[in-house]
Specification:
19% of the residues are buried. The protein has helices at residues 30-56, 60-78, 85-94, 97-105; strands at 2-3, 10-11. Helix content is 60%, strand content 4%. A two-stranded antiparallel ribbon has the order 1-2. The protein is mainly alpha-helical. The longest helix has 27 residues, at 30-56.
Length: 108
């Protein structure tokens, strides 16, 4: 579905001008929308990775894998590299359930 950016009217897919307000319809920008949602997911993922690492930091042994996993996830997210499904599941199990779920929802 397309919507007019001025009045919010629902438009046909091939519409070039909004019939309600007469404004020219810009082409849909699906790439930036998914990029924006990925950026939001990435930020929330980073926050929960840090919170999970801090929460498990009380126990010294789990901290030995939380810090490297968090650092690796940050590097991949910052460089826009894909994360493997196994790494995402291990993050879900061992660091932060929420961060792992968010990473599984991420479009790599």
């Amino acid at each position: 579905m397309k919507y007019c950016s001025e009045c919010g009217n629902e438009l046909l897919d091939k519409a070039e001008i909004c019939p309600r307000c007469g404004c020219r319809v810009s082409p849909p920008q699906t790439a930036s929308k998914s990029s924006s949602s990925n950026e939001d997911l990435d930020l929330i993922t980073k926050i929960f990775l840090i919170l999970g690492t801090i929460a498990l930091g009380v126990f010294l042994i789990p901290l030995a894998w939380c810090i490297p996993m968090t650092v690796h996830a940050f590097e991949c997210i910052n460089e826009n590299k894909p994360l493997s499904t196994g790494f995402k599941v291990c993050t879900l199990l061992f660091v932060s359930m929420i961060a792992g779920i968010l990473m599984l929802c991420r479009k790599d």
